[in-house]
Amino acid sequence: MGCDCSKVNKLENNYLKSHWDDVYTKPKEQLGWYEKEATPTIQLFAALNLPKHANIFMAGAGTTTFVDYLVEQDYTSIFVNDISSNAIQQLKERLTEHNSKINYIIDDLTHPSKLNDLPPINFWYDRAVLHFFNDEEEIITYFHLLKDKVISNGYVLLAEFNPNSADKCSGLLVHKYTAEEMQHRLGSNFKLQQAFNYEYTMPNGNIRHYIYALFRREK
Ligand SMILES: C[S@@+](CC[C@H](N)C(=O)[O-])C[C@H]1O[C@@H](n2cnc3c(N)ncnc32)[C@H](O)[C@@H]1O
User: Which of 80, 94, 190, 199 is the most buried (most CB within 10 A)?
Assistant: First the structure.
């Protein structure tokens, strides 16, 4: 008898959703990827001088403080996604005064449904999300969505574990990235603007090695 793969996928997705919902019962300051200020992201983003009405998408945003930065800077069209409803609920409560500027989308990047309705995106941001996708189909689906949504002259910032980093994040195996692999998966319409390795210190003092890579879509 063959495997009913859609059922297996559904079970795996339910497991992952509850994994992330459990994670987001902790205060954000205790998470292994917490940033009081998203410094490398802010430096790269600020230099782009995007207009305040730019459509900004945050894949797997969790409870990132980069959203706080964007609303403080008067960005008015922010799209925040996560698979965890607990993460989104925490953000909504924290940013309650700014909720008119923020669109919250609880959805799975590897099996998108509501995410298919995203508007054209000027800035796509992913820190420590893409690296959780180990299945080739899921990676392909992620990049398909990205290419469908990021418009010409739009930017993509990917910040993922690099090959020197740990094998796991949040107890889950990761797929580590180089700028070359990101470029290969994005394709030749996207041009690398800059890339650098970054050592992130976790709240417990351990180091995680990230690569930050900023791409611009030319066509
Ligand atoms: C390590 S955390 C990083 C959170 C945030 N990007 C940051 O830098 O603080 C990974 C995030 O990805 C989210 N996530 C994991 N798998 C996802 C999926 N398939 N679709 C959407 N979000 C996902 C998790 O819920 C979690 O918030």
Answer: 80
**Residue ranges covered by each domain of the chain:** 36-217
pLDDT bracket for residue 157 (50, 70, 90): very high
- Tell me the CATH architecture of domain 36-217: 3-Layer(aba) Sandwich (3.40)
Q: Give the H or E element holding residue 65.
A: none
The finding on whether 112 has its CB within 6 A of some atom of ligand 1 is no
- Between strands 78-82 and 102-106, the pairing is parallel
DSSP assignment string, 138-168: HHHHHHHHHHHHEEEEEEEEEEEE-TTS-SE
pTM: 0.95
Q: Which atom of ligand 1 is nearest to the CA of 32?
A: 1
The model's pLDDT over 52-102, given as tens digits with 9 standing for 90+, comes to 999 999 999 999 999 999 999 999 999 999 999 999 999 999 999 999 999
Verify whether ligand 1 is closer than 6 Å to residue 41 (CB atom). Answer: no
CB 108 less than 6 A from any atom of ligand 1: yes
